[in-house]
């Protein structure tokens, strides 16, 4: 090493969003040729930190230093120019273009008259491909590459801009074990050549294999730095979890009634052979990693995506659900993961609240504006929705209030079962508590709630029972009173031999 | 990852967000100008016109201008539905021509039968547009571009490329296009009726609100149990029927079916819709805006004619106005 300063030193990085302190004084160092793993639960701040490192967000406080010299990354180009690149979980490539164009995008070699020197470009690409172990022709269109090859291509792209630090964000999420071995081989080779990596992953075994150090984030703070040789999976797990839940969640003294919804052997795109029951008056949590198939399952039950097999029973009767309208008619509602999938941004609050209940606001297809307004005002008051008027366009409301409008819709509809998909994502703490209270109230009124969430404390705080999904399958069911973050994570993490809590 | 994806979200515990849609206590002149820019534009045109020519504010001139605008106006009402629905219908001009040719050629069967045949052609081809877009998942631009060329081809094949003249048209046949109700031309009365009905449907019916909902967010509409595909098909049917109705008016007015009838109507209609503040993003706009757009375009060209400015130079101004109108409606949205 030429220099005693580490390649990267982040000092006291803080970042707040309205209502959320995403990062609070985080320090992180990465040495030359080192692989540092960054772990933490969903929402711990990993993405925010990496977005700051890549110039997508600006920190509120703190310093980024490369080789001891402070730098600023006002945008991703600046980060790239300083040798910091990011390999995304889902590779961002121009699929219609060829490999060379993707690898050298932005710095294709120019020949005479400024025309692209394709011969030199392909030559250079071939060299770079060799370094990441890819053997394809540089003229291959990127769309013909497998996911694993696309990951490697992104690394080649990072090398093309002479990156000294490459951030790998969940690079193995969709790779087979053989491909993972290949990727790790490449990472080690590059490491030997002096390239450093920040490795983000939920797969703790992988971290033990590839990283030298591990930094743990929790609730926006860095809680630990360990040498990988001196830590264990169990220690990493316990560092990631275990915070006090406080009294954000309502009590769970609810009583489950008859079965409202049952699915048997349900299969579809992204999930296989799922069976479970949901009772009246019950909140069933669905935990799992991003990509475990939870949203796909929910959308298929709701009729938004096709099913490949299995059956759905509503109140014990076999149900035929071909589209969301069928599901709604059977008393099932789905509140989408991405709030924007549920909102009509340019339309007023009153219409966003009453859009699924024409029967309540219209007769013979003609809307009675007075009833529409009355119902909207009623629910704005009951759900404490902060809006200056029911005529306000919903796009001007905060995330929490938008979410309450969507919930109001289904309460007015009087559905029996509501599937919440990440209902509190990106909304502030105060509104979160209100949503929890509303979910609890629904269950107490005898509704059935399915709560999909990537935030384990939310699952633990709300659920009477927890289903855990792992790579498209149900990997276990845990009683809501016995569940701990550790037990759920153990079931949610892939290829985990210790799934002793698995129940039929 | 669940890092806040919406840094815009204001804390719900804070005071209610200010309402940008209504003006504050102090009068915001820029906001006012942006909000009512098209109304003001029309007023300016009318004032300039009356100052320039004493002839302008005569009943005859006004009604002539209005009557001239009705055919594109009827088409533009249908186009408003389509664009609110986040689509586009390029075929309407050809559908006008087809319907006019059919109506003219069946004139001897009586106006009602002839009109019914014309309207049926628009309904059927509009239905085909809708089915191409929903069943074949074609982009509306592509589906209706194909229909535009196909339907124009139909007109040429059917007419053999020459005009179909109505032999000794009856008074009943010419009433719709050339008749008067008191001092008011019949087509103007009919247009006002269509305008009122179309605006009422959009504002007060579940179907009308679904047009906005599907246009604003098709996925959300689907997840709300709205049959988005059926909604779209109906919208293209309405656009087709209205275009065909404009064709009936045209046949009645000219007593002839021209192979090139209705050419470029689609672009004039789109221009009127855009000037009226309906945006291509879907879910924003109104028929009233479109009528304003039609009036602006019609009176503008009337003024320019009175000023003896050639139709060629008029196009320069029209192009600028359309682009400006869209820029202003972007500002309006951002407020």
TrEMBL record, chain A:
<keyword id="KW-1003">Cell membrane</keyword>
<dbReference type="Pfam" id="PF00005">
    <property type="entry name" value="ABC_tran"/>
</dbReference>
<keyword id="KW-0067">ATP-binding</keyword>
<dbReference type="InterPro" id="IPR050107">
    <property type="entry name" value="ABC_carbohydrate_import_ATPase"/>
</dbReference>
<dbReference type="InterPro" id="IPR003593">
    <property type="entry name" value="AAA+_ATPase"/>
</dbReference>
<keyword id="KW-1278">Translocase</keyword>
<dbReference type="InterPro" id="IPR027417">
    <property type="entry name" value="P-loop_NTPase"/>
</dbReference>
<keyword id="KW-0472">Membrane</keyword>
<protein>
    <submittedName>
        <fullName>Sugar ABC transporter ATP-binding protein</fullName>
    </submittedName>
</protein>
<dbReference type="InterPro" id="IPR003439">
    <property type="entry name" value="ABC_transporter-like_ATP-bd"/>
</dbReference>
<keyword id="KW-0813">Transport</keyword>
<feature type="domain" description="ABC transporter">
    <location>
        <begin position="8"/>
        <end position="244"/>
    </location>
</feature>
<keyword id="KW-0547">Nucleotide-binding</keyword>
<dbReference type="GO" id="GO:0005524">
    <property type="term" value="F:ATP binding"/>
</dbReference>
<feature type="domain" description="ABC transporter">
    <location>
        <begin position="254"/>
        <end position="496"/>
    </location>
</feature>
<keyword id="KW-0762">Sugar transport</keyword>
UniProtKB/TrEMBL annotation, chain B:
<feature type="transmembrane region" description="Helical">
    <location>
        <begin position="233"/>
        <end position="252"/>
    </location>
</feature>
<keyword id="KW-0472">Membrane</keyword>
<feature type="transmembrane region" description="Helical">
    <location>
        <begin position="64"/>
        <end position="84"/>
    </location>
</feature>
<feature type="transmembrane region" description="Helical">
    <location>
        <begin position="180"/>
        <end position="202"/>
    </location>
</feature>
<feature type="transmembrane region" description="Helical">
    <location>
        <begin position="104"/>
        <end position="128"/>
    </location>
</feature>
<feature type="transmembrane region" description="Helical">
    <location>
        <begin position="140"/>
        <end position="160"/>
    </location>
</feature>
<dbReference type="InterPro" id="IPR001851">
    <property type="entry name" value="ABC_transp_permease"/>
</dbReference>
<protein>
    <submittedName>
        <fullName>ABC transporter permease</fullName>
    </submittedName>
</protein>
<dbReference type="Pfam" id="PF02653">
    <property type="entry name" value="BPD_transp_2"/>
</dbReference>
<keyword id="KW-0812">Transmembrane</keyword>
<feature type="transmembrane region" description="Helical">
    <location>
        <begin position="291"/>
        <end position="309"/>
    </location>
</feature>
<keyword id="KW-0997">Cell inner membrane</keyword>
<keyword id="KW-0813">Transport</keyword>
<feature type="transmembrane region" description="Helical">
    <location>
        <begin position="36"/>
        <end position="57"/>
    </location>
</feature>
<keyword id="KW-1003">Cell membrane</keyword>
<keyword id="KW-1133">Transmembrane helix</keyword>
């Amino acid at each position: 090493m030429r220099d005693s300063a580490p390649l990267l030193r982040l000092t006291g990085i803080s970042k707040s969003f309205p209502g959320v302190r995403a990062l609070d004084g985080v320090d992180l160092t990465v040495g030359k040729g080192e692989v540092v793993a960054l772990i933490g639960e969903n929402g711990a701040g990993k993405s925010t930190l990496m977005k700051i490192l890549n110039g997508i967000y600006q920190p509120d406080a703190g310093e980024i230093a490369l080789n001891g010299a402070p730098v600023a990354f006002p945008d991703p180009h600046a980060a790239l120019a300083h040798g910091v690149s990011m390999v995304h979980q889902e590779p961002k490539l121009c699929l219609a273009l060829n490999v060379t164009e993707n690898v050298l995008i932005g710095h294709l070699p120019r020949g005479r008259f400024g025309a692209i020197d394709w011969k030199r470009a392909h030559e250079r690409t071939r060299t770079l491909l060799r370094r990441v172990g890819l053997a394809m022709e540089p003229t291959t269109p990127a769309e013909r590459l497998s996911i694993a090859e696309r990951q490697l291509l992104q690394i080649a792209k990072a090398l093309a801009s002479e990156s000294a630090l490459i951030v790998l964000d969940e690079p193995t999420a969709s790779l087979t074990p053989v491909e993972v071995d290949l990727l790790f081989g490449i990472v080690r080779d590059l490491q030997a050549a002096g390239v450093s990596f920040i490795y983000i992953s939920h797969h703790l075994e992988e971290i033990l294999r590839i990283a030298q150090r591990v930094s743990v984030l929790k609730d926006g703070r860095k809680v630990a730095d360990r040498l990988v040789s001196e830590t264990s999976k169990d220690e990493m797990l316990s560092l990631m979890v275990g915070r006090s839940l406080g009294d954000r969640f309502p009590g769970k003294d609810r009583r489950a009634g008859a079965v409202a919804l049952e699915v048997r052997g349900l299969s579809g795109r992204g999930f296989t052979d799922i069976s479970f029951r949901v009772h009246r008056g019950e909140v069933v949590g669905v935990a799992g990693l991003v990509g475990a198939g939870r949203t796909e399952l929910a959308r298929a039950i709701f009729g938004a995506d096709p099913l490949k097999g299995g059956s759905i029973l509503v109140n014990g009767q076999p149900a035929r659900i071909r589209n969301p309208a069928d599901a709604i008619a059977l008393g099932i509602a789905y509140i989408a993961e991405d709030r924007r999938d549920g909102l009509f941004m340019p339309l007023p609050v009153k219409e966003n609240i009453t859009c699924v209940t024409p029967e309540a606001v219209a007769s013979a297809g003609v809307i009675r504006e007075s009833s529409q307004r009355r119902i909207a005002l009623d629910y704005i008051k009951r759900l404490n929705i902060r809006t200056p008027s029911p005529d306000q366009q919903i796009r001007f409301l905060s995330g929490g209030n938008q979410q309450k409008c969507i919930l109001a819709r289904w309460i007015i509809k009087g559905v029996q079962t509501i599937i919440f998909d990440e209902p509190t994502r990106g909304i502030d703490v105060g509104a979160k508590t209100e949503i929890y209270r509303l979910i609890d109230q629904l269950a107490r009124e005898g509704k059935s709630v399915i709560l999909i969430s990537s935030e384990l404390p939310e699952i633990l705080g709300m659920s009477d029972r927890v289903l855990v999904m792992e790579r498209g399958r149900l990997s276990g069911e845990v009683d809501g009173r016995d569940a701990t973050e550790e037990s759920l994570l153990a079931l949610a993490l892939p290829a985990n031999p210790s799934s002793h809590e698995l129940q039929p | 990852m669940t890092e806040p994806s919406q840094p815009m979200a204001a804390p719900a515990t804070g005071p209610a967000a200010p309402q940008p849609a209504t003006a504050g206590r102090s009068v915001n002149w820029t906001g006012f100008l942006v909000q009512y820019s098209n109304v003001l534009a029309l007023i300016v045109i009318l004032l300039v016109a009356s100052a320039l020519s004493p002839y302008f504010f005569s009943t005859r001139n006004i009604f002539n201008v209005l009557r001239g605008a009705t055919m594109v106006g009827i088409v533009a009402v249908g186009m408003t539905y389509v664009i609110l629905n986040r689509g586009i219908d390029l075929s309407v001009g050809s559908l006008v021509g087809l319907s006019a040719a059919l109506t003219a050629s069946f004139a001897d069967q009586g106006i009602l039968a002839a009109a019914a045949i014309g309207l049926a052609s628009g309904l059927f081809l509009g239905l085909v547009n809708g089915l191409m877009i929903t069943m074949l998942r074609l982009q509306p631009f592509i589906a209706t571009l194909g229909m535009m060329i196909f339907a124009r081809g139909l007109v040429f094949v059917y007419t053999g490329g020459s005009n179909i003249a109505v032999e000794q048209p009856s008074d009943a046949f010419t009433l719709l296009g050339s008749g008067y109700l008191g001092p008011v031309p019949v087509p103007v009365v009919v247009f006002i009726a269509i305008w009122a009905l179309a605006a009422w449907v959009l504002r007060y019916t579940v179907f009308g609100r679904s047009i906005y909902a599907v246009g604003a967010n098709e996925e959300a509409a689907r997840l709300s149990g709205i049959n988005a595909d059926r909604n779209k098909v109906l919208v293209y049917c309405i656009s087709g029927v209205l275009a065909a109705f404009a064709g009936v008016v045209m046949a009645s007015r000219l007593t002839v079916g021209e192979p090139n009838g209705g050419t470029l109507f689609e672009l004039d209609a789109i221009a009127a819709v855009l000037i009226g503040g309906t945006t291509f993003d879907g879910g924003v706009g109104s028929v009233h805006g479109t009528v304003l757009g039609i009036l602006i375009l019609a009176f503008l060209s009337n003024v320019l004619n009175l000023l003896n400015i050639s139709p060629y130079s008029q196009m320069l101004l029209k192009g600028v106005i359309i682009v400006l109108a869209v820029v202003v409606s972007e500002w309006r949205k951002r407020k």
